[in-house]
Amino acid sequence: MRHTIRKLMLSALFVVIIGSNASAQGMPVYDNTNFISFVKSLLESGKQTANLMKTVKFLKTQKENIDKVNDVIKQLKAVRELVRNNQRLYDVVQDDLREILNSPFIKPGEVTRISDSFDAILENSMAGMEYIDQILSSDNMKMTDAERAEVLKEQELKSKEMVAEIEAKTRRYREIIQFREMQHKINNRETDY
């Protein structure tokens, strides 16, 4: 037991000796200049964040404007292509149809059928152009620019199909004329026997 008491006494003495050198700092000290500069930097960061938010908002509106302009450009390209296709249709009808109908190898009964088929294509083209005019000029059809551009692209494809159809018909009638002309030459040739 004596050993135990000695050990406890030595331990207590050791703690007191070591503990006498250790001391607390006391009350915390605040540096007011550091605190003021910290608050100033926080305010400056807040201003920069506000400016960044304004910039982001501005860039979003500019992106929307660019998208609108792109849609309008797409619409203009589609309309230009539609006008070009319709001009091609009218040129074919004015030149090629007149040439086909004036051919002596087209029978009188075929003239009305040929002109009716070309007229149907032209009427379809005119209806498409009126629809496009209604889409572009009327605000009653609540469409976004993207939807309008999509409809114009569809009409452009239809007009390309009409041009292809009228070119195919023109080619077919020319081939018929060439065949009949060749047939006429064969049937009316002079024979030297």
Brief sketch in words of this structure:
The protein has 193 residues and is an all-alpha fold. It is built from four helices and no strands. It starts with a helix and ends in a 6-residue tail after the last helix.
What does this structure look like?
- This protein is mostly helical and 193 residues long.
- The protein has a domain at 52-185.
- 84% of the residues lie in helices and 0% in strands.
- It is built from four helices and no strands.
- It has helices at 2-21, 32-101, 108-137, 145-187.
- Helix 2 (32-101) packs parallel to helix 4.
- The radius of gyration is 46 Å and the shape is rod-shaped.
List keywords for this structure.
mainly alpha
What is the distance, rounded to the nearest whole angstrom, between the alpha carbons of the first and last residues?
Answer: 158 Å
Low-confidence stretches: none
In terms of DSSP E residues, the strand content is under 5%
Strand and helix order:
HHHH
Tell me the radius of gyration.
Answer: 46 Å
Q: How many β-strand runs?
A: 0
Alpha plus pi helix count: 4
- Quick one: overall form? rod-shaped
Mean pLDDT: 81
What's the story with the biggest beta sheet? none
- Overall SS class: mainly alpha
The helix fraction, in percent, is over 70%
